[in-house]
Amino acid sequence: MARESRISVNRMVGTAILIAIVVVLQIIGSFIRFGAVSVTIVLVPIVVGAAVYGRGAGAVLGGAFGVVVLINCINGVDIGGNMLWVVNPALTAVLCLIKGIAAGYAAGFVFSRISKKNIYAGAVCAAFACPVVNTGIFIAAMFLFFRETLSVWASLNGFPVVYYAFLIMAGLNFLFELGVNIVLCPIIVRIINAAKTRA
Asked: How far apart are CA 170 and CA 135, in angstroms?
């Protein structure tokens, strides 16, 4: 019973520390942009939390990321997000939260399945799944719910809509997110191993 209580406290404290890291990194990342799109640099702590504490913790960390993104959309720090907020506040709020929560959950789900055979492969696949889900939901929402805004952005930049969405708006951000996650995978694995050893 005491061991279970200690594990529960460790999980809560670890998740809280990772939430603080997510918030700080997202605020910093808000000022790094490719055009009007802010770069997401918070996916590594989300992947770590999802791998160490499970998919539920991944979803919580993704939710914290989504809340900061939403605040930046509302206050205009995220210029593109603010434009979406002006067009449809409720849908923008749902999009910010859903894509973050889903990305964190997906990282935990993928890690839990693949790490049983190989922890490094699990970390790499989780690090890949997180930005794929985050960016994939964003692009799908742009086409489904913000098509007119997307068309305006594409025409202002002189590109066809599909090219602009996949290669300019999301492509650079996705490649950056994926690159950071993959490069840091050995560190992610060490953190996971250290956390599992302590537990």
From this structure: 7
Pair of tokens at residue 57: 């913790």
User: Measured between alpha carbons, how far is residue 19 from residues 4, 13, 15, 145 in Å?
Assistant: 22, 10, 6, 29
CA distance 145 to 84: 10
CA angle 187, 176, 45 (to 5 degrees): 40
Which pTM does this prediction carry?
Answer: 0.86
Non-local CB neighbours of 45 within 8 Å, separated by 6+ positions: 18, 21, 22, 25, 61
Rounded to a whole number of angstroms, the CA Rg of the chain reads: 17
Cα angle: 172, vertex 182, 106; to 5 degrees: 85
Contact 86, 120 (CB under 8 A): no
Of 9-23, 151-165, 177-191, which gets the smallest average pLDDT?
A: 177-191
Beta-carbon contacts of 71 under 8 Å, excluding residues fewer than 6 positions away, are: 77
Contact (CB, 8 A) for 41 and 23: no
Contact call for residues 72 and 84 (beta carbons, < 8 A): no
Chain segment 19-32, per-residue pLDDT in tens:
998 998 888 877 66
Residue type, 165: A
H or E stretch covering 122:
helix 119-145
What are the beta bridge partners of residue 38? 33
